[in-house]
Amino acid sequence: MRGSDEQNGVLFSYVSLEERIPARHPLRLVRQIVNAGLAQLDADFAGLYAAEGRPSIAPERLLRAALIQILFSIRSERQLMEQMQYNLLFRWFVGLGIDDPVWVPTVFSKNRDRLLTADIARKFLAAILADKAVAPLLSDEHFSVDGTLIQAWASMKSFQPKAAGGTEPSAGDDAGPGQDGNAAAAEPPAAGRNAEVDFHGETRSNGTHASRTDPEARLYRKGPGKEARLCFMGHALMENRSGLIVDACLTQADGHAERVAALALIEPRADRPGRVTLGADKGYDVQDFVNECRSMNVTPHVAAKTTASAIDGRTIRHAGYALSQRIRKRIEEAFGWGKTVGPIARTMLRGTRRVGAQFTFTLAGYNLARLPKLLAA
């Protein structure tokens, strides 16, 4: 017989959130690993809060909600709070009961900013990798390193001449660059829009100009023929066995940042009796970088340039070199995931400290997204 379409209001529900989530849902394993990692950060969380006063949002819930935002490509905190109103899976993962109120987006953002420090993000990444189920997946001998550009939350119109003898942009109106005599003067802006600015004929560089929106962002060109953009540079270290990111950092964008960051990332892992290998692209094939790696007991498996390469047959002849060159490209998968699923294609945060924490936390989310299949294999 035909069923009825009548809706009867139910006052009580006797099914818990735990029972509503399928037993084989991948987020169950992710939540288990995340909770174990957060438990290791309890002392770090305690140092961020006062002993007395009104209780704030639990830091564990803040980080779990931030992970949901990354894993499900939720574009803003306001949309995240909206979806947590009706999405029972999100409520269960974060730790909210079915009747618990969802936070105001502004309150969530202000409390989350307290945790946006590079130390917490890197410790969280390390805690995930130290899990007893995850640690056997990692290699402690073979690594790969690479960098990627993260577009800053600043427009080219904010890139204005610095004050005389200073590092900050000169004080003035918001009409944009092109007011130093080298370019056409900006026209008065029409109602509801920015001023029209003509950049032609103006020479701009990081030495003479800086962004008023994000002074720590740097103008950088990815390669010949590419446009220059205000951006940061993120760096990641990947272990070669499972392709998981084991460390990350963020710097201002410049031509030497990738090699300097690579040495800083590999140095803690080179403190062992045997040598470790480090795969990288041609941008790292520089004599200074190769010499520094060898002095740290690291074999530089960098892609050799056609001419004037810093490595020779002593490195290239080994089968491990070819293997490193094939595996090192997998680090691009982490960057691609972070820019398509995650929020690092163009960050909405400002400053190297906050953007760096977001970058590291996004790569931790990449590891968590891959763990259910890796542990099931």
Query: Which architecture of the largest domain would the CATH scheme give at its second level?
Result: 2-Layer Sandwich
**Uncertain residue ranges:** 172-185
- The amount of helix comes to 25-40%
Total domain units = 3
CATH topology name of the largest domain: Nucleotidyltransferase, domain 5
**How many angstroms separate the termini?**
46 Å
Count the DSSP helices. Answer: 14
Structural class: alpha/beta
User: What's the overall geometry?
Assistant: globular
Give the SSE order as H and E letters. Answer: HHHHHHHHEEEEEEHEHEHHHH
Count of distinct strands:
8
Residue-averaged pLDDT = 89
In terms of DSSP E residues, the strand content is: 5-15%
- Tell me the name of the CATH class of the largest domain: Alpha Beta
Strand count, sense and barrel status of the largest sheet are:
6 strands, mixed
**Radius of gyration (Å):** 24 Å
Tag the structure with descriptive keywords:
14 helices, Nucleotidyltransferase, domain 5, 377 residues, six-stranded mixed β-sheet, 38% helix, globular, alpha/beta, single chain, two-stranded antiparallel sheet, 13% strand, 3 domains
In short:
38% of the residues lie in helices and 13% in strands.
Question: How does this model look, in words?
Answer:
- The protein is α/β, with parallel strands linked by helices and 377 residues long.
- The chain has three domains: 17-115, no CATH class; 139-152 and 230-352, Nucleotidyltransferase, domain 5 (2-Layer Sandwich); 160-211, no CATH class.
- The protein contains 14 helices and eight strands.
- The strands form two sheets. Strands 1, 4, 5, 6, 7 and 8 form a six-stranded mixed sheet that branches.
- The longest helix is centred in the C-terminal third of the chain and has 25 residues, at 352-376.
